[in-house]
Amino acid sequence: MKKNFLSILIILIPMMIFANSQDEQIMILKKTFYRGNLQDKIQVISEAATMEENLEEIFLSSMDFVVNYGDILKTDDSMIQLAKITVENLDKVDKSKVSQFFIDLFPLYDSEIIRNSILNSISKLQINDSKINILLKDYGFSLLENPQEEPMELLISTMEQIDDSSFFPVLFKYAASTNVPESVRKQSENVISGFVERYKTDMVSIIEKGSLSEKHLALKIVLNNEKNSDFLRAEIAEKALQVSIIYIGDTNQKNELIDFQLSAIRELRRVGWTRSADLVVSFFNFARSEYENESLAEDDYIEIISCVEELATSKASSILSDYLAYFNSQTEQGISCSESVVLAVINALGNLGNKTAFDNLLYVGYLSYSEEIIEASRVALAGLKF
Fold first, then answer.
1. d(CA 106, CA 114)
2. Phi and psi, residue 54, nearest 5°
3. Given phi > 0 = left and psi -120 to 50 = alpha, else beta, which region is 334?
4. CA distances in angstroms from 308 to 23, 235, 289, 352, listed in the order given
5. What proportions of the chain, in percent to the nearest 5, are helix, strand and coil?
6. HEC-encoded secondary structure of 206-254
7. How far is 188 from 277, CA to CA, in rounded Å?
8. Does residue 248 carry a pLDDT above 80?
């Protein structure tokens, strides 16, 4: 029994001595911090950061110090260093206290060093605080006054880690701005694209109310990420096409408007979004007007005719048959029509196979069309379903 007791003492005594020495070391650190100058304080925080013990009291003291004396010493290099090293080592401090510290510290110091450290720590500690998020958003807008790559990229990375849709105005502003570095624009686009579900309401709002260039950018961002679901992509494309038909803008933007519309309808066609049938028919009437005004290239117009065939199947036969009747009337009067467009309409009617096109297809053979068009009408007639 005595031997066992002695064995236990041999083990416990060094541990007790070590514990006492650790307590003394911690007390020394506290005294040094309270009594020392800025360099002493920096040394204390540096050493405390390497220790496994919970030294929250020392870090809280440092947090209070850099905030309380910030007005006086915020431009002092040593004070900035102390604030930086404090910010970077708050893993063991209660998150609510850290959040309030950042809220107090961020606007107090103009130092990019401190602000960058705060951004890194927000990501590292996974802090999502509404008041901090407001600060970050305001900071993001302020960076537009003097755009710089490093702080902007770091801010975007921090925003990416936080599930808060309120960051969208900053991110989209960066993506749409011609005054920020290209890397910043691209990074902002990627973040929005990667979290479209998070920002979906904002994206729809941009497509509805933004400028044409903003609408187009919003659509591109959604479509450029192949990871976005077809359902989501088609929903956004449908909204874009709907808005484009009623858009009234500068005539100098006509080409961009057409590019915007083509991007939308091509996506609807790719997905096979037949839910947009009525919209596609409305767009066809718009596109026809643009084509006849020579604002829309013939190849693009023919592509739109194919989209009508594929997406508006229940109504396409009627509208395209009426269109062929128009061409027949023009040809009968000796007015020339684009052979490529007439062929596109006839081929579409043949593919649809609806018997409502019978009379107009048949009449083609009695008019002075080219042999190619007449032959195409025969093939289309043979494909009609009765």
1. 8
2. -80, 105
3. left
4. 80, 18, 15, 11
5. 80, 0, 20
6. HHHHCCHHHHHHHHHHHHHCCCCCHHHHHHHHHHHHHHHHCCCCCHHHH
7. 34
8. no
Return d(Cα 284, Cα 63) in angstroms, integer: 65
Return d(Cα 120, Cα 125) in angstroms, integer: 9
Chain segment 18-70, per-residue pLDDT in tens: 445 667 777 888 888 889 899 999 999 999 888 877 788 899 999 999 999 99
Distance CA 170, CA 176 (A): 10
Average pLDDT over residues 283-296: 93
Instruction: Give the CA angle between residues 283, 285, 286 to the nearest 5°.
Output: 60
CA angle 108, 77, 57 (to 5 degrees): 65
Question: Do you know the residue count of the chain?
Answer: 386
Does the pLDDT at position 321 exceed 90? yes
Indicate the pTM of the whole model. 0.83
Q: What distances in angstroms separate CA 205 from CA 33, 177, 219, one per listed residue? A: 53, 18, 12
Total Cβ atoms within 10 A of residue 336: 7
**Token code pair at residue 152:** 């902007």
Helix (H) / strand (E) containing 263: helix 254-271
Nearest to 247 by CA among 290, 188, 281, 277: 290
CA of 137: how far to CAs of 14, 36, 132, 309, in Å? Answer: 54, 37, 9, 47
Distance CA 373, CA 364 (A): 8
Token output for 259: 């590019």
* Cα-Cα end-to-end distance for the chain: 107
Closest to 232 (Cα-Cα) out of 265, 263, 273, 262: 273
- Closest to 356 in 3D by CA, of 328, 316, 304: 316
**Nearest in space to 381 (alpha carbons), one of 356, 98, 157:** 356
Look over the chain and give the mean of its residue pLDDT values, rounded to a whole number: 90
